[in-house]
Amino acid sequence: MQREVTVASASGLHARPAAIFVRAAMAAAPVAVTISRPGGRPLNAASALSVLSLGVEQGTTVVLAADGDGAEAALDRLAALLETDLDAEPADG
Q1: How many Å apart are CA 93 and CA 74, to the nearest integer?
Q2: What is the C-alpha separation between 27 and 67, in angstroms, rounded?
Q3: Residue 93: inside a domain
Q4: Cα gap 66→85, rounded to integer Å
Q5: Does residue 90 belong to any structural domain of this protein?
Q6: Catalytic machinery residues
Q7: Order of strands across the sheet with 43-44?
Q8: What is the rounded CA–CA span in Å between residue 66 and residue 90?
């Protein structure tokens, strides 16, 4: 199962938005989630280095994929995160 999502964060998937996304992908365990550019090689969404290596900017479409029990819910949560400008969200206190 997969979802195509357009990244809304002003800084793309860099710095704070990438960290928030990676933490959420890690929380999706035991569902393994991958992220890629359309047609690109799927990378581990729970790896900060993998996510940062994509060089995703605001407005870029990415593909999230996962299989197994809980995959649909995990993809829904992660897609909603990416569709939010995480740069505009208040910092965790």
Answers
A1: 25
A2: 15
A3: no
A4: 23
A5: no
A6: 14
A7: 2-6, 61-65, 34-36, 43-44
A8: 29
Mean pLDDT of 61-86: 96
44 — pLDDT class (breaks 50, 70, 90): very high
What confidence score (pLDDT) does residue 24 get? 96
Token pair 């999706």 is at which residue?
28
Q: Copy the structure tokens of residue 22.
A: 């990676």
Here the CATH number for the domain that contains residue 16 is 3.30.1340.10
Check: CB of residue 76 under 8 Å from CB of residue 5. Answer: no
Determine the Cα–Cα distance for residues 87 and 67; give it in Å rounded to an integer.
29
pTM of the complete model: 0.92
Query: Does any domain span residue 31?
Result: yes
Give the CA diameter of the chain: 38
